Amino acid sequence: MIEHEVRTYKSSENLPREEQLAWKIASVATDPVEVEAEVTDMVINRIIDNAAVAAASVRRSAPTHAREQAQAHPTEPGAPVFGLAVHETVSPEWAAWANGVAVRELDFHDTFLAKEYSHPGDNIPPILAVAQHKGIGGKALVNAIATGYEIQVDLAKGICLHEHKIDHVAHLGPSAAAGIGALLQLPTEVTYQAVQQALHVTTATRQSRKGEISSWKAHAPAFAGKMAVEAVDRAMRGEGAPSPIYEGEDGVIAWILSGPEARYTVPLPGPGEAKRAILETYTKEHSAEYQSQALIDLARKLGGQIEDVSAIEKITIHTSHHTHYVIGTGSNDPQKMDPTASRETLDHSIMYIFAVALQDREWHHERSYAPERAARPDTVELWHKIVTTEDPEWTRRYHSTDPDEIAFGGRVVVEFKDGSVLEDEIAVADAHPLGAKPFAREDYIRKFRTLAEGIVAPAEQDRFLELVQRLPELSGTEVRQLSFAVEGLEHTGSKGIF
Q1: Which of 367, 391, 426 is the last residue of a domain?
Q2: Are 142 and 132 in contact (CB under 8 A)?
Q3: Residue 116: left if φ>0, alpha if ψ -120 to 50, beta else—which one?
Q4: Quick check: helix, strand or coil at residue 162?
Q5: Domain residues for 62?
Q6: Which domain of life is it from (predicted)?
Q7: Can you give the pLDDT at residue 404?
Q8: Count of domains in the chain?
């Protein structure tokens, strides 16, 4: 890996294109490096993972409305949309939109946490949609997805967005554009312009994940993917973009991030170096914000040791800065303690999540969020006894790159009314690569089967799984079949502009 220093330059300094971060990203995308076997296997796993969570969400409001919007833009050859017959194709940017919402709706696919947070599986819908529209085969698709993951992970390692209240999808626009550039084997110049354009139009605030969280949380990454497709299309036609988008005097670093004096270091593969970043990412066993994954596992364990939760006086979760301030009591969001809050809000409330997981000793993507579950009096009482606090050691471990130290969990102290105390801690989720039960291919397949049960017919499940596991050898025609249909899928009949 090469460490690239990135800073603001005055317009009079005339920073050469080859020294700009967007050009370096484009150079990685256009470097024809062979994809390693274990990377290929993980790409397959994550396509399965995306399809699993899309199946579980396909009938929910946001994916349904996004699908209805996409259906207003039929195109041949086009790309399929989750839930519809694979021959019912739409324009690729709209397929990226609809499929992106379905994948993101339940907050249940993969994650990477570093200086910035990310869900790199969000790269798959736009890259796959373009491959399907253009009739591109599986081998090129694998390389493109590996590229999208590489760029998003590397940006997340080097540039923190959330400290400036910028949403993490600002790293997704460039990574998806880079992945599409790799897919289409575009010149570095074209990919460079697309990366810059994609960043320019996908930079938004984090209010989508603050206060009363709405369904836009699921739409935001899908919008970034849609914009990436459009950015590449414009660049291919010869159109340019704001340049240099990162380093410019009025660019992202100078006015949106840490300012003209700031220095960022972004690691990127050198020429001829394999793109392996997907192997550093991890999926979710539970449908909730990633920092809750390990704590759900710990709550299930502690639940088996507590006979009477009404005997609890207080629960304190000692954890990282991010967990405390984003999904904990440090957020100062009263909505996170509200039994009538939206599902999107509850999945960003570790207080609610920990209470339910402790009581039920499980976490379910539907039952655990049901309004009647959230309103249960004994749950509300327990929920309101839970507080979080930042522990500097857990924050340090959160940002560590040492496998022996890395941690996304916390230490939990349960105080009982009789004065006794129960205490335990967990570093990473069971499903994490460093966890007690790391996810493997059979786990991804089980997750797909479980979430698709009663939604996707068994024969259709079989067809999809058989196809995706042959990904590197698939023809362009076969890649177009990488979706699933849902029998009897109903629509809302809602009306918008189109």
Answers
A1: 426
A2: no
A3: beta
A4: helix
A5: 2-280
A6: Bacteria
A7: 87
A8: 2
